[in-house]
Write a structure and sequence with these properties.
By secondary structure, the protein is α+β, with helices and mostly antiparallel strands. The protein has three domains: 46-160, Beta-Lactamase (2-Layer Sandwich); 228-319, Helix Hairpins (Orthogonal Bundle); 327-480, Histidine kinase-like ATPase, C-terminal domain (Heat Shock Protein 90). The chain has eleven helices and twelve strands. It has helices spanning 3-33, 38-43, 50-70, 78-89, 162-213, 228-283, 290-321, 334-351, 372-389, 435-439, 448-458, and strands at residues 93-99, 102-106, 129-133, 136-147, 151-160, 330-333, 354-359, 367-370, 395-404, 407-414, 462-468, 472-480. Strands 2-1-5-4-3 form a five-stranded antiparallel beta sheet. Helix 9 (372-389) runs antiparallel to helix 11 (448-458). It is rod-shaped. Bound molecules: adenosine-5'-triphosphate (ATP) and magnesium ion (MG). Adenosine-5'-triphosphate binds at residues 313, 381, 385-386, 389, 414, 416-417, 419, 427, 432-434, 437, 444-450, 473. One of its GO terms (molecular function) is ATP binding. Keywords: ATP-binding, Cell membrane, Kinase, Membrane, Nucleotide-binding, Phosphoprotein, Transferase, Transmembrane, Transmembrane helix, Two-component regulatory system. Residues 263-483 form the Histidine kinase domain. Residues 196-248 form the HAMP domain. The chain crosses the membrane at residues 7-33, 171-194.
Length: 483
């Protein structure tokens, strides 16, 4: 749940929960007073069993009223009145009969009430008037009638209501206190839970940020939920992973740089050492015949050439790596381009007894943007490898052009020894040479395919390899087709 809806809900709950509790409390009190909660009301003295007393009172009062209409004379009979009072005693109600301004009959318990204290003849505000007489509260039922020959008279059924009042007086402050308590507790609990659900993830984010600041990138941030803070934590986690990855890449770069320097020094040192050795041999007069001298000079020349080639490759590689090689792209049909290139290769391939075949669709157009010289470097590095590592009597190189998904694909396959599967993921890395090639006297620095990859990528294309030992090697290049 989002923080916003959580806050809204908690505010609603802060209002609604006390209201509901208040209503429940109110209903309970009402039920209590109406005698619906019998267990509670039974705890009180019988006279306070409100429902029962009310109905008994009402019944008796009805009888009295009826008698006053049918047979009013009976109210002159004290024994009749005493009998009524007797009945009323059970419900702790008391009878007063007022005739004119005089009290005609009054129960002993209420004989301090004077005729003036009572509501006047004809006063009917409700069936149960609450009156305060001599600092005491009474509930009064009144019925007015006419006594033959004596004139106006009123019957009063009086009940001490102070218990009820005192009960109300103590109950309401109690209720108010309970309500206040409910309000404080509800608000407290809700505030605690809502703030905890916000503060807890913030704290874990804080400690995660602290760790990242200290360079510790391995502690993952785990905040569960679906709110804004979880999203923030997820973004934070993504940032941590990104940082970790950059740190790894940085470390890898550093490692590569060190390796590169070591490789360069080694690769430069090897031919120079042997050149030096041959020259020293000549100086020391080791070459006893002109043929031998010639062989030495030939070797020195060969080694210098290797050195020159290596420096060339290194130079190109580092310039490509620094993205300092200018590219001049032009629209070229690869079919035409490769036909020319294969023709150019013809002589050398014939010498090495290798057949080359170019397969393409005569009707198709293989238009791409490319830098002629750089792409030539890519093809010659690949074909150089095919020739250099060829182990068959009859070498075959197949170049196949095809179109698909907006790409022009060039596949260069040879029937050479293939590349061991464990070496395949690395052959486009700089200075990588498969074990088998290193052992042979083929020469090379392991930069050829790394350079090819960089050039193809500069063209926005991709380069991949498929190879298996004894099947041969297939290098696949795809470039964006220009239609
Ligand atoms: N056609 C192939 N057949 C067999 N192995 C190959 C072939 N092409 C590449 N390889 C393997 O991949 C490695 C990397 O090739 P790459 O061209 O980058 O380096 P290299 O040929 O050793 O040196 P360089 O090309 O710089 O003279 C080679 O050493 C070789 O082991
Ligand atoms: Mg090579």
């Amino acid at each position: 749940m989002s923080i916003r809806s959580r806050l809204i809900l908690s505010y609603i709950a802060m209002v609604v929960v006390p209201i509901i509790l208040f209503i429940i409390a109110g209903l309970l009190i009402m039920a209590f007073f109406r005698g619906d909660i019998r267990e509670l009301s039974s705890l009180l003295p019988e006279s306070h069993n409100y429902k029962q007393t009310v109905s008994e009172d009402a019944e008796l009062f009805g009888d009295i009223k009826e008698t006053s209409l049918v047979n009013p004379v009976r109210f002159n009979d004290p024994s009749f009145l005493l009998a009524i009072q007797e009945e009323l005693n059970r419900t702790e109600s008391f009878l007063i009969i007022r005739q004119g301004e005089e009290i005609l009959f009054s129960a002993r318990e209420v004989n301090h009430i004077t005729a003036e204290d009572l509501p006047e003849f004809g006063y009917h505000s409700s069936d149960n008037n609450i009156e305060e007489i001599n600092h005491k509260t009474y509930s009064i039922k009144q019925h007015d009638f006419y006594l033959p020959e004596k004139g106006i008279a009123s019957i009063f059924l009086i009940k001490d209501a102070s218990v009820l009042v005192s009960l109300t007086q103590t109950f309401y402050p109690l209720l108010f206190t309970v309500l206040l308590l409910i309000l404080v507790v509800t608000n407290g609990i809700l505030t605690y839970y809502v703030s905890r659900s916000i503060v807890k993830p913030i704290n874990s984010l804080k400690s995660a940020a602290q760790k990242i600041k200290e360079g510790k990138l391995n502690n993952s941030i785990d905040v569960k939920g679906k709110d804004e803070l979880t999203e923030l934590a997820q973004t934070f986690e993504a940032m941590r992973l990104q940082l970790k990855e950059s740190a790894t890449v940085q470390a890898q770069y550093e490692e590569n740089r060190k390796e590169l320097i070591a490789h360069i020094s080694h690769d430069l040192k090897t031919p120079i050492t042997s050149i030096k050795g041959y020259i020293e041999g000549i100086q020391d007069g080791v070459t006893t015949s002109p043929e031998m001298l010639n062989r030495y000079i030939q070797t020195i020349y060969q080694k210098s050439n290797d050195l020159d080639h290596l420096i060339d490759e290194l130079f190109l590689y580092s310039k490509l790596d620094l993205k300092k090689v200018p590219f001049s792209f032009e629209l070229v049909d690869l079919k035409e381009y490769l036909l020319d290139y294969v023709e150019e290769l013809g002589f050398e391939l014939e010498k090495k007894k290798v057949d080359i075949h170019l397969h393409y669709d005569h009707t198709a157009c293989y238009q791409v943007h490319l830098d002629r010289d750089k792409i030539k470097r890519v093809f010659s590095n690949i074909i150089d490898n095919s020739l250099k590592y060829m182990d068959k009597e009859k070498g075959i190189i197949d170049i196949e052009l095809s179109l698909g998904k907006g790409q022009v694909k060039i596949e260069i396959a040879d029937n050479g020894p293939g590349i061991p599967s464990e070496a395949i993921p690395f052959i486009f890395h700089q200075f990588y040479r498969a074990e088998q090639s290193r052992n042979k006297q083929t020469g090379g620095s392991g930069l050829g395919l790394a350079i090819a990859r960089m050039i193809v990528e500069e063209h926005g294309g991709k380069i991949a390899v498929e190879s298996g030992q004894d099947i041969g090697t297939k290098i696949m290049i795809s470039l964006r087709e220009v239609s």
